[in-house]
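Problem: given the chain below (199 residues), write out its structure.
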Amino acid sequence: MSGAMRNKVQRKFKMRGYTLKVEALSEIHSFVSRFSEAEDEALDLLLDELHHSSLKSSILDKESVHRVVSLAGSRGCSGGEPNKHTGKLPIHGDASAKATLSRDRFVLLFQRLSRDPDFSRPVFDTDISDYGSCQISTIQSLVGQTEKRWVMGLISQLEDGHFYLEDLTAAVEIDLVNAISFAISVHHLFSSPSFDTYS
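Solution.
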């Protein structure tokens, strides 16, 4: 093993909290030499296997390294033919996957809207607009509040004739009798790369 390679191995293992004995270093060298093009990946694989195995000490000897090397070799480093799936895979996800997808989309939009300058709280008490700070609040935080708040949520119809505005924290019934349709603005809002304000 070259001096540069020896130093690299010792440095990587020391960064993870391991101390190597000389015979452990030679065992690691014999493992890494099998992967001439991907030495760093082989070292990382070995370190990950060491992390998941139960060791008696942080000082590694030849037996402990050999045990982990044999584990890493049995998990697919042999270079054989990859496993093929022969069964039918479903095209559509189940209900929990669809709910997770909707929840992740909502969180993504909430994070994007929270970073927008019009909806982020000012650092100093300066008047950004006539409306004051337009910070987005959760629906659950509306309990007991009397001042105007900005919320983001999904309109859902849980019962016939009753509409609810809901987010990840709560749902509140809303009256849409005098509501204005924002279909054009909402389409532009989600198709444009940045959020715009509309008056």
